[in-house]
Amino acid sequence: MTHPIPTLLSVLAHPDDESFGMGGTLALYSQRGVQTHLICATRGEAGEVDPQYLEGFRSIAERRESELRCAAGSLGLSGVYFLDYRDSGMTGSPDNQHPEALAAQPVELVAAKVARLIRQIQPQVVVTFDPIGGYNHPDHIAIHHATVLAFRLAGDPSFACDLPPCQPQKLYYHTISKTYLRIAVLVLRLLGKDPRHFGRNGDIDLASIVAEGKFPTHARIDCRSVAAAKSAAAACHASQLGGALPRRGLIARLGRRASYTETFMRAAPPVERRLREIDLFAGVE
Ligand SMILES: [Zn+2]
Predict the structure, then answer these.
(1) What is this structure's pTM?
(2) How remote is the CA of residue 135 from the centroid of ligand 1, in Å?
(3) Which residues line ion ligand 1, judged by CB < 5 Å?
(4) pLDDT single digits (tens) 40-53
């Protein structure tokens, strides 16, 4: 049995994933009276933080957790749950080797924690990253795999935990708009910039994401009505905003436009033909 109140669970990796990717969707469903919960696997320990943002905080993790709680308020989230793993950093960084790094954990262990929380929260709909984690971040990929397994385990009576089985009805992967990415790659090239080294740390390869991330779009969520809540949530992550994305100019305008619509691929129930949903709760009983 799932919760009698419509309930949405988002399973992500770092403080800020909820705001920059699917923040509009979370805000929209909260506003519609859906109980909207977030599992965040780490506290973003490996993120770069300017020392000015650490004043009054004992660690990067503490600062970023407080930013997430601020964003949760803006998005109207009903609950935030940490899995207490450590941020693995981008591929090849020394943080990958830390014994508590999310990406270094056996998928079954992470999935068991997520499955228990699914049984506790009882969502009808679960959302997570796409199979390449949006832009190949190792933690995003790790939590994607754990969530796919957890979605099944939560309803499986043979998965033993202290809570009874609970099978959510739908599983979605958030996908980045390929149209926006293609245009961004083109504009960056025209500006003489390298789309293979994009972002605050130059570690996001937009060109290969365009090539790899060919995931179908099954649901488009119109988030224009909650654009202010999404921006307010993003602004909470002040320590992560320094130059990550251009604030002005064509790329910034395109980014804002693209953020009005959030796109998802439906993984469960499986999609046999073309599907164009405009509501993640369509068909939910
Ligand atoms: Zn992330």
Answers:
(1) 0.93
(2) 9
(3) 13-14, 17
(4) 999 999 988 899 99
Q: What are the tokens at 2? A: 């799932």
For 64, list phi and psi in degrees, rounded to 5.
-70, -30
Q: In the structure, what pLDDT confidence band is assigned to residue 259 with cuts at 50, 70 and 90? A: confident
| Distance in Å, CA 228 to ligand 1 centroid | 22
Best CA proximity match to 78, nearest among 129, 26, 24, 17: 26
Given phi > 0 = left and psi -120 to 50 = alpha, else beta, which region is 123?
beta
- The alpha carbon of 108 and the centre of ligand 1 are apart by a number of angstroms equal to 21
Cα–Cα dist 28/189, whole Å: 35
For residues 277 and 36, give the distance between their C-alpha atoms in angstroms, rounded to a whole number.
19
**Residue 15 Cα to ligand 1 middle (Å):** 7
Whether pLDDT at 245 is above 70: no
Inter-CA distances, 185 with 120, 190, 248, Å: 42, 9, 17
Q: Is the pLDDT of residue 243 over 80?
A: no
Does 158 score more than 60 pLDDT?
Answer: yes
Cα(40) to centroid(ligand 1), Å: 9
Q: Are 178 and 185 in contact (CB under 8 A)?
A: no
CA separation for the pair 38, 82 (Å, rounded): 9
Is residue 77 within 8 A of residue 229, CB to CB? The reply is no
What is the length of the chain? Answer: 285
Ligand 1 centre to CA of 39 (Å) is 12
Looking at residue 198, its pLDDT comes to: 83
